[in-house]
Amino acid sequence: MLTLAFDTATSVATAALVRDGEVLGERASRAVRVLADADDLLREAGRDCSELGGIVVGVGPGSFTGLRLGLAAARGLAFALDLPVAGVSTLDALAAGAPGALPIIDAGRREVFTRVKDEPVAVAPQELELEPWTLCVGDGALRYRTALEERGAEIPDDGDERHRPRARFHAELAKRFGPPDEVEPLYLRIPDAERNT
C-alpha cells in the first residue's frame, strides 16, 4: 500500500511517502509546508495521489497549532481522496527512531511531553526521575539538556536525526486505519488561548 505519513506536532514537521515498508521519499520542514511536501514527495516518486491507499498523521502530544494543522490537512486530504486515516503518537514515532530512548517533546510553559510509567504526561523537566544514562531524544531533550543531564540523562548531539519524529516511523507504526473524523489529537492540557481567558 502506498502511504503518505506526516507529523506537525513539533518544531520540525516531517513527511514521508512509503510503499509496503519501503521509504520512497522523506522531507523535514515547517508545519505550514506539509501539503507542499506531500505534493513534492508524490511528484519525485512519480506517483499520483490517486495511488494512495491511506494517510498516517502524528496525533501528538505537541504544539496545539501544529497538531490542528496536521489533523486538518490529513482529514482534508482523506475526505477529498476518499482515503482511510491512521493516527500515531508523536512520542511513539520518536521512540521508534531511537529504540530504548525516552522521547521528550518541548511542551512550552517550561514543561515537556514525555512518558512516565508508559503514560503520556506534561511535566517540568526538573521533576523527571531518570535512571542513570537514560537516552533522551526530541526537541524537549535539546531545550532542557542541562536539566536532564543533571538528572543522569544522555542526550545525542543537537544535529542527531533521532531528535526528529520521522514520518517513516509513523507509517511503520500505523495499525488501525479508519474514517478521518475518528482520528483525534492527544492533548495533555488545555490550549494557551483557553487557559488565558
Descriptive notes:
This protein has 197 residues and is an alpha/beta fold. The chain has two domains: 2-90 and 166-186, Nucleotidyltransferase, domain 5, CATH 3.30.420; 98-161, Nucleotidyltransferase, domain 5, CATH 3.30.420.40. It is built from seven helices and eleven strands. It has a five-stranded mixed beta sheet with strand order 3-2-1-4-5, with helices on both faces. The protein is globular and about 50 Å long.
Q: Please tally the helical runs, counting DSSP H or I stretches of 4 or more residues.
A: 7
CATH class of the largest domain: Alpha Beta
CATH architecture of the largest domain: 2-Layer Sandwich
Helix content: 25-40%
How is the quaternary structure best described? single chain
Low-pLDDT parts are: none
Arithmetic mean pLDDT:
94
Q: Helix- and strand-based class?
A: alpha/beta
How much strand content do the residues show? 25-35%
C-alpha geometry: globular
* Count of individual domains: 2
Number of E strands: 11
Major sheet characteristics: 5 strands, mixed
Order of helices and strands: EEEHEHEHEEEEEHHEHH
Question: How large is the radius of gyration?
Answer: 17 Å
The CATH homologous superfamily of the largest domain is called ATPase, nucleotide binding domain
Order of strands in the sheet with most strands:
3-2-1-4-5
Distance between the termini: 45 Å
Kindly identify the CATH topology of the largest domain.
Answer: Nucleotidyltransferase, domain 5
